[in-house]
Design a protein that fits this description.
Keywords: 4Fe-4S, Flavoprotein, FMN, Iron, Iron-sulfur, Metal-binding, NAD, Quinone, Translocase, Ubiquinone. The chain contains 18 helices and nine strands. It is α/β, with parallel strands linked by helices. It has three domains: 213 residues, NADH-ubiquinone oxidoreductase 51kDa subunit (Rossmann fold, 3-Layer(aba) Sandwich); 84 residues, Ubiquitin-like (UB roll), CATH 3.10.20.600; 86 residues, Up-down Bundle (de novo design (two linked rop proteins)). It is globular and about 75 Å long.
Length: 428
C-alpha cells in the first residue's frame, strides 16, 4: 500500500493523506476531529448555499478520479434545479474492480471519516438526503471501518437529522456489490444497487435526470469525494496551486509490477512517470528493464520507455495515445512476452463482460482464443490482422458501453509497439 518512508505530508501539500497514521490504524472520529475533520462540511452547511458549494467545486477544477476525468462541478450542475423534487440520490462508486488499482481501498480503510465528510458536502450541494456507498464485496476491512465510522458520525450528530443544527438531513448506507467489473459504469452500478442485473442503461436519459429508482442521481468516485473537505476548507486558489499542470490538485498515483518498491503515493498532477517509477517505486528490480507500462489500470493503452518523461495528467497522457485512468501504473519488464500479458488481461475482460451487446459478448472470447493460439505458437496466417480488425470492431461507438473499447486498448497498443512478438506465434 502507501509508502510513508521519507515522505513529509502536511495539510497544505497532501490534502488526501496527511491525516494517515504511520501505524496504518484507521483514523476514528475523535482523532479526525482533532485533525480539522468535518471543518469543510460545517463551513458548507452553515455558511454557504448548495449553489455556492457547486460553484466552488466547479471553480476548483476537480475532475473525476475514477478514470474518466470529467469535471465534478459540471456533473453536479446537471442535476435538476427544481426544488420540488424531494428525493435525489448520491452514490459513491467504491467498487474499484480495475486490476492493479487499490487507491480507494486505502482511503476507505484508513480514512473512512474523510469519505463520509465528502459525502456530506456533496449531498448538501446536490440537495440529496440519502446516499449509498456501493462497495466492492471483497473489501471486508473497508466495510467494517466504514460501518463503524457511519455509526460514530451518526451518534455525534454529523449524519442523520438536523446536521450541525442547520435543518439538513442526510442518511448514508453501505451496499456491497456482488463483484462485477461492469459496475464501474455508473448505470450498471445503479441497476445493481436496485437489485437488478448489472447491465448498462441506454443514455439519454442520464442518471442526473432519471437514475436510481427513477430519481435524479449523481455517482462519484471515492477519491473524487475525498477531495471535497480540503477544497471547502482551504479554498479554490490553494487547491489549484498544488498542481504542476493544468489539472488541479493532487492525485493518488503508484507503480506495481516488478519494481523495487511497489506502492501508492499522493502526488501533484504534472509529476512525470519516470519520477514516480525511479524516485518513489525505486526503479525496476535488478537485472530488469522497463519494456512497457500502463498509466492507469488494465483498460489503458500501453506506453513505452520514452513516454516515462511525460507529465502524469489527463491531457499529456491522452496526447501520447493512452489515458491517465486511475493513475496507478503497471510496469512490464523486458523478460515478459507481451502476448502473455495481453492474454491475461483479455481473459479478465471476457469474463467480466455483461453480455448485453453482441460485439462485446462474442468479440472478447474470440480475442482470447486467438491470443491463446499465438501464445502456444499455433497461430495461423492472418490472426494478427484479425486481432487488429477486432480492435476496430469493438472500438468506441460500436458497443453499448465502454467495456469492450477499454478491453481493446491494451491489445491495440501492444500490437502497435510489439507486433513482432505476436507474429512470432504464427506457424509458418
Amino acid at each position: 500500500m502507501i509508502s510513508l518512508k521519507n515522505m513529509v505530508r502536511t495539510a497544505e501539500t497532501h490534502p488526501l493523506t496527511w491525516r494517515l497514521r504511520y501505524d496504518k490504524e484507521p483514523v476514528w472520529f475523535d482523532e479526525y476531529r482533532k485533525k480539522n475533520g468535518y471543518f469543510g462540511a460545517e463551513k458548507a452547511l452553515k455558511e454557504m448555499t448548495p449553489e455556492e458549494v457547486v460553484n466552488v467545486v466547479k471553480d476548483s477544477g476537480l475532475k473525476g478520479r475514477g478514470g474518466a476525468g470529467f469535471s465534478t462541478g459540471l456533473k453536479w450542475s446537471l442535476m435538476p434545479k427544481d426544488d420540488s423534487i424531494k428525493m435525489r440520490y448520491l452514490i459513491c462508486n467504491a467498487d474499484e474492480m480495475e486490476p492493479g488499482t487499490y487507491k480507494d481501498r486505502l482511503l476507505m480503510e484508513e480514512l473512512p471519516h474523510q469519505l463520509l465528510e465528502g459525502m456530506l458536502i456533496a449531498a448538501f450541494a446536490l440537495k440529496s438526503h440519502r446516499g449509498y456507498i456501493f462497495l466492492r464485496g471483497e473489501y471486508i476491512a473497508s466495510f467494517k471501518n466504514l460501518t463503524k465510522a457511519i455509526n460514530e458520525a451518526t451518534q455525534k450528530g454529523f449524519l442523520g437529522k438536523n446536521i450541525f443544527g442547520t435543518g439538513f438531513n442526510f442518511e448514508l448506507f453501505i451496499h456491497t456489490g456482488a463483484g462485477r467489473y461492469i459496475c464501474g459504469e455508473e448505470t450498471a452500478l445503479i441497476n445493481s444497487l436496485e437489485g437488478g442485473r448489472a447491465n448498462p442503461r441506454f443514455k439519454p436519459p442520464f442518471p442526473a435526470f432519471i437514475g436510481a429508482w427513477g430519481k435524479p442521481t449523481c455517482v462519484n468516485n471515492v477519491e473524487t469525494i475525498s477531495n471535497l473537505p480540503a477544497i471547502l476548507t482551504n479554498g479554490v486558489e490553494w487547491y489549484k496551486g498544488l498542481s504542476k499542470s493544468d489539472d488541479t490538485g493532487t492525485k493518488m498515483m503508484g507503480f506495481s509490477g516488478r519494481v523495487k518498491n511497489p506502492g501508492l503515493w499522493e502526488l501533484p498532477f504534472g509529476i512525470t512517470a519516470r519520477e514516480i517509477l525511479e524516485d518513489y517505486a525505486g526503479g525496476m528490480k535488478d537485472g530488469l528493464q522497463i519494456k512497457a507500462w500502463q498509466p492507469g489500470g488494465a483498460s489503458t493503452d500501453f506506453l513505452i520507455e520514452k513516454h516515462l518523461d511525460l507529465p502524469m495528467d489527463f491531457s499529456n497522457i491522452k496526447q501520447a495515445g493512452s489515458r491517465l485512468g486511475t493513475a496507478i501504473a503497471l510496469a512490464v519488464d523486458n523478460k515478459i512476452n507481451m502476448v502473455s500479458v495481453v492474454l491475461n488481461l483479455e481473459i479478465f475482460f471476457a469474463r467480466e463482460s455483461c453480455g448485453w451487446c453482441t460485439p462485446c459478448r462474442e468479440g472478447l472470447p474470440w480475442t482470447v482464443k486467438i491470443l491463446e493460439s499465438l501464445e502456444k505458437k499455433q497461430g495461423r496466417l492472418g490472426d494478427v490482422e484479425l486481432l487488429q480488425k477486432i480492435c476496430y470492431q469493438l472500438g468506441p461507438g460500436k458497443t453499448f458501453c465502454a467495456h469492450a473499447p477499454g478491453a481493446m486498448e491494451p491489445l491495440q497498443s501492444a500490437l502497435k509497439y510489439f507486433r513482432e512478438e505476436f507474429d512470432a506465434g504464427i506457424i509458418i
